[in-house]
Structures are given as C-alpha cells and as structure tokens.
Design goal:
The protein has 251 residues and is mainly β. Helices cover 7% and strands 68% of the residues.
Length: 251
C-alpha cells in the first residue's frame, strides 16, 4: 500500500510540474525495455495540451490547446537505434484568431508521424546507468473545423481549413536505477499551421502561423512494471505547457 501511495504521489508531482500542439518527446536516452522475444515495442499515449503560444505575421498572439491519443510502433536496432511510426486521434482549439474574440474548435481527427531515437553514450554511474540520447520526429494533424465562435457564440462559416505540421528534435539525459528511469532534456520544435475560413462577409486566411517559442524543456519518468512493460509520465514547459501519460510493451 505504501509503495502504491508513493508512486501516486510521484505521478501527481510530475503532472502538476508539467501540465498544445506538440508531440510528446519520450525518453530519447533509452532503451528502457531490453526484454522481449522480438525487437518491437508498442506504446499508447494520452496527451493533454493546455496551451501553446503561436506566432503570426498577421494575427496577434493566437494560442492552441487540445487532447491527443496515439499509438507508437517502434523497432529497436541493436538496443541503441529506435525507428518508429505514430498514429492516433486528436482534437483542439485555436483561440484569438483572427482576434481575441474568436475560438475555433476542431473535430476529432486522425494524426500520423515518424521518428527516430539514438543512444549516443552510456556510462556506469554509481549503481545505475547514465545515458545520453537524441530524438527527431515529424507529426501532422489536419482536422475539420467543428465550430467557430465569436464572443463564445457559434457563427456560420464556410471554406474552412485547419492544418498543423510539427518538426521536433531533442537531446536528453536519463539515469536508470533499477526500475526507475528519470530523464530530462532540451528540445527544439516548430509548428507550421494554416488557418482559413469565411464568415459570410470576410475571409480570414493565414499560412504564416508558427511557434512563438522554439526551445523548451522536457522531463519525465519511466517506471518498469515488468521486464517488458513500463509506464511513462512526462511534462514539458517554456515553449508549451503540456503533459502526457504512456504505457510501453516490448514483444
């Protein structure tokens, strides 16, 4: 009971510390799971997006928030290289576009992405292992608009288009001590967005929407539940405020 309580407290601490459109980084300094008959890992992730500040040459301070549910299929190569694909569903809101009185809500839609991680170095440190790794990924999300609100009231629109494309690279440090692997690092990410709709009298269109801040921090914890199963929690800040929970299994 005490062990379960301590685990819940630790999870709450990480969640509060870290709680947009931005992909979860994960532990770029893995591998966490070395056990399994085959070099294949499957991950499930649930991501909460509170706010990511966007920038535009035409609109002042738009923001994005949303929720994403994804699966990641990974192939380990030599326990250092991890090549993976991402598929899932998500929805979101764009606020303050074209001005602070508008809110654009999307429908739930499919997303996909590709990525690669590599462990650069591994050291024995005290009673554990210290690893340094890098990760790079691309993710794309093109939902249909559900409703556009003006002063929180739905308005009639047509010719709607909403797209988000993200590139992300990260450098991370992880320390594995028995069943616990805390990690942290620095990431660079950029979002390429397109927003377009007509409210009957005026057409609003912007292809210049990007991230307001490109550099951010990420920090997380992997907990090995069994030799081939682990639980993950991660927070991200500076360029965004976001958090995600994950479950990993190696076959």
């Amino acid at each position: 009971m005490i062990k379960k309580l301590n685990m819940l407290i630790l999870i709450d601490i990480f969640y509060i510390a870290g709680i947009c459109f931005a992909a979860p980084v994960g532990n770029p300094a893995g591998p966490v799971l070395l056990e399994g008959s085959y070099p294949v890992k499957f991950s499930l992730e649930a991501e909460t997006v509170l706010e990511r500040k966007l920038a535009s040459g035409n609109v002042a301070n738009p923001t994005f928030n949303g929720t994403f549910y994804t699966g990641k299929f990974s192939l380990y190569v030599g326990n250092k290289l991890d090549v993976y694909g991402i598929v899932g569903l998500g929805d979101g809101k764009v606020k303050k576009f074209p001005d602070e009185n508008y809110i654009i809500e999307s429908k739930m839609a499919a997303l996909w992405g590709l990525g690669i991680s590599y462990v650069l170095r591994e050291f024995e440190f005290m009673d554990g292992l210290l690893r340094i790794g890098v990760d790079a990924k691309y993710r794309q999300f093109e939902p249909d608009m559900d409703v556009v609100k003006y002063y929180r009231e739905p308005i009639s629109t047509r010719n709607q288009k909403l797209t988000f494309k993200e590139w992300q690279a990260s450098l991370g440090f992880a320390y594995q001590y028995k069943k616990l692997i805390p990690y942290l690092g620095l990431k660079y990410s950029d979002v390429d967005s397109q927003i377009h709709f007509n409210n009957g009298s005026t057409t609003y269109s912007d292809k210049t929407v990007t991230s307001k801040n490109n550099f951010g921090l990420f920090y997380g914890l992997d907990i090995i539940v069994k030799d081939n199963v682990s639980f993950n929690i991660e927070g991200r800040s500076l360029d965004e405020e976001a958090a995600n929970l994950g479950l990993n299994a190696r076959f």
